[in-house]
């Protein structure tokens, strides 16, 4: 009986194989890629740490990558000092990613502390090259730029111009520039528009799941738009709940919000498997979005099918109490402890529950 059962099962398997397409067979033969996991240093902003302390802490959490998303976290931008930082990271088993802030010269967030927008971007590319980062992250601005003269489309055009001016620099360095959907500045489709207008040969996306909620999008749906061009990440979870005026959003540690991290990891492995999942917890604060009030959509691109998915999340969400540190010196310590707890819990959750990470 065992032999007859074996022969029957073998015949069934052979028949299935004969009718399976090559794509299906390849998928069955190839296990899902193991995804690297890391942290964005902004998750620990209250610590005031520089690169050496950040490297040591990321290694203690068994991260595979460290995203230094602010040039101020580097004590020196001279190449010899940067090479020392790179060596320390390599010794700790970490791959570095690096970034900075606005490269849109007409954004309300743009600062001239690194020179002109083009000088800022070229500096970032040099720093990234020396540190061994495969990308340099930059942003357009934040949601206030949607209200500026010409609206967000004018700011997109200005950012694209800066990117194109630095295209040769990026290609020569062998790097890509990652533009983030940042602080409510860009809907996912607007970020994709910017990237494709500049050129996908040297520009991609730094996908931020928390910021997707700030443009009234379901982060999973936003990832469907941006995943194919994602080359870096700054992720977090969130609770979203309905209010009389619209909805409220509060970012959380992974596992404490509405995101399905197993589903995200599975889709991530399909769309951008070589990009690490890096966590940027900014937990505690709440933001209200009164999109039911007249005039709100003057500054946003209302797409009913996208809003419906966001509202479905809000219907499942629950209100949270905002984090508030006490005043005085004690408040700084409480905030630091809170931020360390949120990022360490997030990394542990992804390693334990989702199976992320390359380290045992």
Quick overview:
It contains 13 helices and 11 strands. With 360 residues, it is of the alpha/beta class.
Draw up the topology in text.
Elements: H1 2-19, H2 22-29, E1 37-40, H3 51-60, E2 65-68, H4 79-91, E3 95-102, H5 117-131, E4 135-139, H6 151-165, H7 167-173, E5 176-180, H8 188-198, E6 203-207, H9 209-213, H10 219-226, E7 230-233, E8 237-243, E9 246-252, H11 261-271, E10 277-279, E11 286-289, H12 304-316, H13 329-354
Parallel strand pairs: 1-2, 1-10, 2-3, 3-4, 4-5, 5-6, 6-7
Antiparallel strand pairs: 8-9, 9-11
SS-based structural class? alpha/beta
CATH topology of one domain: TIM Barrel
Total helical segments: 13
Strand residue percentage:
15-25%
The biggest sheet amounts to: 8 strands, parallel
- Our Rg estimate from Cα atoms comes to 22 Å
Residue windows where pLDDT falls under 50 for at least 5 positions: 1-30
CATH class of one domain: Alpha Beta
CATH architecture title of one domain: Alpha-Beta Barrel
Shape: globular
Terminal Cα separation, in Å?
43 Å
User: How do the SSEs run, as a string of H and E?
Assistant: HHEHEHEHEHHEHEHHEEEHEEHH
Number of E-state strands:
11
Looking at CATH, the homologous superfamily of one domain is Divalent-metal-dependent TIM barrel enzymes
Strand order of the largest sheet: 7-6-5-4-3-2-1-10
Helix content: 40-55%
Q: What does the average pLDDT come to?
A: 92
């Amino acid at each position: 009986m065992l032999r007859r059962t074996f022969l029957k099962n073998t015949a069934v398997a052979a028949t299935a194989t004969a009718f399976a397409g090559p794509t299906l067979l390849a998928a069955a033969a190839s296990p899902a890629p193991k995804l690297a996991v890391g942290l964005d240093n902004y998750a620990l902003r209250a610590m005031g740490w520089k690169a050496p302390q950040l490297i040591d802490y990321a290694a203690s959490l068994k991260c595979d990558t460290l995203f230094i998303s602010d040039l101020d976290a580097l004590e020196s931008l001279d190449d010899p000092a940067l090479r020392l930082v790179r060596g320390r990271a390599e010794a700790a088993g970490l791959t570095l990613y690096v970034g900075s802030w606005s490269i849109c010269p007409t954004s309300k967030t743009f600062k001239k502390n690194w020179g002109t927008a083009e000088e800022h971007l070229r500096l970032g590319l040099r720093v990234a090259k020396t540190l061994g980062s495969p990308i340099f992250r930059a942003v357009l601005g934040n949601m206030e730029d949607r209200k500026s003269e010409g609206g967000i489309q004018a700011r997109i055009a200005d950012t694209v111009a800066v990117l194109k001016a630095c295209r040769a620099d990026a290609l020569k360095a062998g790097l890509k520039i990652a533009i983030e959907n940042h602080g409510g500045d860009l809907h996912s489709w607007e970020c994709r528009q910017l990237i494709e207008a500049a050129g996908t040969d040297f520009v991609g996306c730094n996908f931020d799941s928390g910021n997707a909620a700030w443009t009234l999008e379901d982060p999973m749906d936003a990832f469907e738009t941006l995943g194919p061009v994602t080359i870096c990440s700054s992720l977090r979870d969130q609770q979203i709940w309905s209010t009389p005026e619209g909805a409220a959003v509060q970012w959380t540690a992974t596992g404490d919000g509405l995101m399905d991290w197993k589903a995200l990891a599975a889709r991530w492995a399909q769309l951008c498997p070589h990009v690490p999942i890096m966590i940027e917890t900014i937990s505690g604060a709440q933001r209200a979005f009164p999109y039911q009030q007249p005039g709100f959509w003057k500054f946003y691109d209302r797409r009913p099918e996208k809003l419906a998915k966001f509202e479905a999340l809000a219907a499942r969400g629950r209100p949270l109490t905002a984090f508030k540190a006490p005043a005085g010196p004690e408040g700084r310590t409480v905030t630091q402890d809170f931020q360390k707890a949120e990022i360490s819990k997030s990394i542990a959750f992804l390693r334990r529950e989702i199976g992320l990470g390359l380290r045992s």
